[in-house]
Amino acid sequence: MKILLCGGDGFLGRHIAEALVKAGHVVRQASRRHGVDFRAMLSPEDWQPHLKGIDVVINCVGIIQETRQQSFEQLHHLAPAALFRACEMCGVTRVIQVSALGAGAKPTTRFLKTKAAADQVLRETNLDWFVLHPALMYGAGGASFQFFMQLAALPLIPVIGNGKQRLQPVHISDVVATVLQALVSDSSRLTLDVVGAEELTFIEWLQLLRDAQSLPRAKSFTYQYRLLSGAQHCHDISPR
After folding, report:
1. What is the DSSP letter of 111?
2. With b meaning 16 or more CB within 10 Å and e meaning fewer, what string describes 35-58?
3. pLDDT tens column, 15-66
4. 122 and 97 in contact (C-beta within 8 Å)?
5. Minimal CA–CA distance to 92: which of 120, 122, 62, 118?
6. How many C-beta neighbours within 10 Å does residue 29 have?
7. Long-range contacts of 75-81 (CB under 8 A, 24+ apart)
8. How does pLDDT run across 190-210, given as a tens digit for each residue?
9. Could you tell me the sign of the dihedral formed by the alpha carbons of 9, 13, 14, 20, in that order?
10. Model confidence over 56-106: pLDDT tens digits?
11. When you count CB atoms within 10 A of the terminal residue's CB, does the N or C end of the chain come out lower?
12. Which residues of 208-226 are buried (b: 16+ CB within 10 A; e: fewer)?
């Protein structure tokens, strides 16, 4: 198949691209490095030249933090929405949208709300689609995973709140396998959570990352931030 891969320069995208090529697919990349700036791709007409001869589109574009140049609304919602509508116009057979766990009925952050908005646009099309909601992904080469490894290696581990937030981390290989299965599945028009087999608290997750680095168990402390009037702030630190 001929596949347009959006976001192939990212952690997940690089792994997907490698797996697609190994499986014998022809991959066309859509990223800033390949001359496609999502901030400027806000209408279906912008996308149509990139969809000629394409069978399947995989979108895994995502940013963790907004900047003056990049917003969640542009990259997570408006550009993908235009892409999905262009797919309808150009006869693309299938679209796989890699969204985020938590982008369901009641998303709680701007990150999740903009992901959810694009998901809903795709669901309202006549395309064969999959919306994948991966949990926290881990694996070699991931910037966020490296951050958590470094955090876990500290002699005293800081956690936000009580550290008991529930997680189901999923290995990058399992997410890639799910994307490849969605590519050839006889079923479609499905929203799937892609999560690991084990549910952990945030602090348990960090302790496991210490184990992976052959480090002894460590104490943690809670960190809370409250914005007061003006530029004042308060840190509430409690040993655990």
Report:
1. H
2. ebebeebbebebbeebbeebbbbb
3. 999 999 999 999 999 988 888 999 999 999 999 999 999 999 999 999 888 9
4. yes
5. 122
6. 18
7. 75/38, 75/39, 76/111, 76/114, 76/115, 76/117, 76/118, 77/114, 77/115, 77/117, 77/118, 77/121, 78/42, 79/38, 79/39, 79/41, 79/42, 80/6, 80/118, 80/121, 80/122, 81/117, 81/118, 81/121
8. 999 999 999 999 899 899 999
9. negative
10. 999 999 988 899 899 999 999 999 999 999 999 999 989 999 999 999 888
11. C
12. ebbeeeeeeeeebebeeee
> What is the full DSSP assignment across 3-42?
EEEETTTSHHHHHHHHHHHHTT-EEEEESGGGT--GGG--
Distance CA 121, CA 138 (A): 28
Res 234 pLDDT > 50: no
Which pTM was predicted?
A: 0.85
Query: Is residue 190 helix, strand or coil?
Result: strand
Tell me if 12 sits within 8 A of 97, measured CB to CB. no
Give me the residue label for tokens 């992976």.
Answer: 212
User: If you average pLDDT over residues 113-120, what whole number do you get?
Assistant: 97
Q: Where does the pLDDT of residue 224 fall: very low under 50, low under 70, confident under 90, or very high at 90 and above?
A: low
